[in-house]
Amino acid sequence: MLDALSDRLQNTFRRLGSSGRIGEKELDEALREVRVALLEADVNFKVVRDFVARVREQALGQEVLKSITPGQQVIGIVHQELINTLGGEQAQLLKADAGPTKILIVGTKGSGKTTLAGRLALRAKNEGGRPLLISTDFERVAASEQLQVLGASIEVPVYAEEKEAPAVEVARRGIAEAKRQNATMVIVDTVGAVALDDDTADALAALADEVDPTEVLIVVDSMTGQEAVTLAKEFHEALEGTGIVVTKVDSDSRGGAVLSVREVTGLPIKLITTGERLEALEEFHPDRFASRVLGMGDVVTLVEKARASMGERDVETVAKRMRSGQFDLEDFLAQMEQLKSMGPLGGLLDMLPGAGALKSRLGGVDFNDGFFRQSEAIVRSMTLAERRNPELLNGSRRRRVAKGSGTTPADVNRLLNQFKDARKLMQAMSTGKGAGGFMRMLGM
Ligand code: GDP
Ligand code: MG
Hints:
- By secondary structure, this protein is of the alpha/beta class.
- It folds into 3 domains: 3-85, Four Helix Bundle (Hemerythrin (Met), subunit A), CATH 1.20.120; 101-285, Rossmann fold (3-Layer(aba) Sandwich); 299-443, Orthogonal Bundle (434 Repressor (Amino-terminal Domain)).
- The protein has helices at 3-18, 24-40, 45-61, 70-85, 113-126, 143-153, 167-180, 198-211, 225-239, 256-265, 286-293, 299-309, 312-323, 329-341, 345-350, 355-361, 369-380, 384-388, 395-405, 409-430, 438-441, and strands at 101-107, 131-135, 158-159, 185-189, 215-221, 243-247, 269-273, 281-283.
- The longest helix is centred in the last third of the chain and has 22 residues, at 409-430.
- The two termini are 31 Å apart.
- The protein binds guanosine-5'-diphosphate (GDP) and magnesium ion.
């Protein structure tokens, strides 16, 4: 996600930055390109209009045009205004003062509500809470079954009823069950709406009255773009939402929903989901997301992911080897395994500064399991000496390795080039340049 937008913005600013001085005319030209880039990313046109106006006003007001590096300063303003557009501060999930925290999840069909219910339950459980999931969806066959399977997989109890009954009644009985179980969190999953007609709105409002939720989360599927944003606004008007969750941020959507929904609804984005796995739930940080939009990378999230997926010790060992330049093909293989467990590599690369360039250097490689298997086979066909010292691999050795691993010499060359790129990247990181002190942030 965001590749196209972020590439366009970077190109625009690169041009701005290279001219020693810019006048009002150059500024307006750049802002016109920013405007087009945002519109093409499917950002709401009013949001775009206000955004560009704010940036322009500030750029002129701060006498940017007299400064030595106007490009940098304009980027700074754009960055800050993006943060504002995205809500400024990070918004936390609310907690009930007394009794269990009750979360009502609403949104369109297929937007990821049921999956979100499971994600929130898993997180609450991992934090030592006692969540209970309630299914009030009878419309789709096997809808409550889906929630029950999810609950069973994370060992969280699910309240569901066999026979169809009004959502309000099911919720009432479910909440009574939560009291009996002394649950600390109740998560109510609802039937999806396609459009919010009066009947649907009334039914949801009645459900909200019954549940008396601490938090009403409106789920917005980033794939559906502005349509989802408009509907989120209607949900909010009918139900008084308390927060937005944008799902499928891992998808190749253009980013418009994330960039618009805060301004259009007035509600903060509290969480985003970035994959089908239940663990793929992230807090939403406006500043980090703004950095990603501008291709400045989101190293903080990357490091958090790395920490969560590797043990502290692994991080330290690998970091040591990187610093001392001992990083070899065996480490490379181990790293790829780690990356695999951190989720899709494309998503990780998006978090690195200048990721666009890196991605194209990696040559559009499909980082799927097949790729990992092939790389592993190639490395396993090398002698220990070759793995430790890849420089030994001359033409005839490469041919031997290709034969042994059932690949071609071109495959072997490609892997070795990727290894060299990875090593270069790591050196840049460990010297604190490339990724803004990646290693320092790992606490080394
Ligand atoms: P609901 O109809 O709103 O309850 O939606 P579901 O929770 O059943 O999800 C619909 C589909 O979207 C399922 O196949 C989910 O696996 C998928 N999905 C949900 N969230 C994400 C996400 O963040 N990323 C991706 N790629 N898929 C997701
Ligand atoms: Mg569902």
